[in-house]
Amino acid sequence: MPQDSFDFKFSQCFGDKADIVVTEADIITAVEFDHTGDFLATGDRGGRVVLFERNNSKHCEYKFLTEFQSHDAEFDYLKSLEIEEKINQIKWCRPTNQSHFLLSTNDKTIKLWKVYEKNIKLVSENNLSEGSLASSRPAGTGSGAQGARRGNGAAKSVLSLSSLKLPRMSQHDKIIAAAPKRIYGNAHTYHINSISINSDQETFISADDLRINLWNLEIPDQSFNIVDIKPANMEELTEVITSADFHPQQCNLFMYSSSKGTIKLADMRQNALCDLRAKTFEEYLDPVNHNFFTEITSSISDVKFSPDGRYIASRDYLTVKIWDVNMDTKPVKTINIHDQLKERLSDTYENDAIFDKFEVNFSGDSSSLMTGSYNNTFMIYPNVISGGASPGSRRPEPSTMDEIVLQADKTAFKSKRLGTLEQQSARNKEWGDDIDFKKSILHFSWHPRENSVAIAATNNLFIFSAL
After folding, report:
1. Helix/strand/coil for 55
2. pLDDT tens digits for 80-105?
3. Exposed (0-12), middle (13-18) or buried (19+): which is 35, by Cβ within 10 Å?
4. Which of 12, 64, 138, 185 is 20 to 30 A from 271 (CA-CA)?
């Protein structure tokens, strides 16, 4: 790869670029590339899923493919609670026969969608069409009004069994249709925070605050409870599950993170309830350094395996930690994300920003990381893992920068006038006291095969690419 393989530039923006009042339903809550990177899916608070298709192989450009309503608001009559339609996560399944499949979930229900090209045919010729009437009209029926009346009568009389023809259909149009194939419901008492598809492409897990269930994609009415941290007495509850992820290659391994800052790596072959013998990744924190906010800021909001399966990245409010799967005592690297917020945690607590759940993502070659922040900024850490590429793949050239800070807003349109990537990164990092906590980059996805990223910035979808 050339030296500028991390020279990310603004490529595209979908959504309202003007400063308008953003409708709550339009805020994007999930972004996911498929395994080829040719398709991209987003979900929003209004329960809609929008799909995009790659438009150009040389540049990272996408075009709108289709949109469908995945979830609707419901009411839980037993608990007197409204269940939001908001899409929490989207995961692509393996495509079959030109059809694409994806899982989407809100707080309670997971759905499997089939997206396919549908041919629309219309009847182009039948027994009452003009051509068939003319051919069946006997000679000498005349012209004018009187002839027409006689002709119609004659036509009716000659529509005998022998003159009847099958209607003919002709191609009219092609549309992209989405149909719900299966609905996996009634298995979670608490809010579903993550779903993850197994590498065997036959099963998937869904995690809520206290339980993780294992499903077979073909069986929507039955799941197995593989993790249960619910205490006998709910007053003794000290932690909740925040995220879960299947190992990308070994179908028996999965991990989940907790609000206590721990990650547990579990093997489904060892126990029916996998949390009993799970390997725990936890960094020791000296109690002297504890403060009122420590418990909140150490809660892990997202956890991901690297595509080669060797590393784990976890995101809490202030840091990203990278763990080696074989070393559970301490992380191999800790990246400080919000140094400038350490003195302002009381502000973030008052406006609830401290509870924001930022995601973390690996590049396709397992060597680099990205995560989000405030003021519509997101950070890319090039080659943060030495030797992270899978065997046989070409390593990217070392980047001269250890952090690239980009902004997913209107300034991105004129980024070419804003100087070099280093200058842009330095400027974007200097927040001062002016922090817009409403403009947070929580959801994004890294293209699996190249240095292109899709970013959700409130109701807009930005694409940045180093192609």
Report:
1. strand
2. 888 999 999 999 999 988 899 999 99
3. middle
4. 185
